[in-house]
Specification:
It holds the Pfam family RNase_T. Keywords: Exonuclease, Hydrolase, Nuclease. The chain has about 200 residues and is α/β, with parallel strands linked by helices. It has a single domain, classed as Nucleotidyltransferase, domain 5 (2-Layer Sandwich). Helix 4 packs parallel to helix 6 and helix 5 packs across helix 6. The longest helix is centred in the last third of the chain and has 19 residues.
Length: about 200
Amino acid sequence: MARPIGRAAPAPDFIAVDVETANADPGSICQIGLASFAGGALVDCAVWRVNPRAHFSPHNIAIHGLHAADVRDAPDWPALRPTIAARLAGRIAVSHTAFDVTALARACAADDLAPIAARWLDSARVARRAFPQFARRGWGLAGLAEHLGIVFAHHDAGEDARAAGEVLLAAIAASGRGVEDWLLAAHRPLREFVDAAR
């Protein structure tokens, strides 16, 4: 059951995840960031460069500024996966849209590795339900961050992960729903939240 609107809900630990990719293939991860939150605050942010063993497209380079030379000596995904999997195992893992979840799944599948086991929560779906003005449009990370006063360097995996986590914290504060509540509520029809806000 949802808590009363406007009443802050306790925030269990969660980890926000973001990736940058070398090209249009979501599995071509070249950077990954994990932002850990506990007690409603950021406690740690870790970033790794990843050698995707793939070409870097000019389009993607223009987005995140990373080139093949920047990751030449970085571990590839099979080498880094155990570290990421250990940090996410059994945890609530937050990503802004499903892109990052898809990217991790594709990267694992490309090397016949088991998918990352986590309880995934999409902060974009949460924001669309917690903030009625973003239900239909404007729920990209940059737009939400600007509205909520979250300052970050967009398209850096660590910064984007932190911002996604802070969006979730803002949604918790605004809605009174905790993280566990949102794991279910984020998949309920959007119209239920839009109608309730009228």
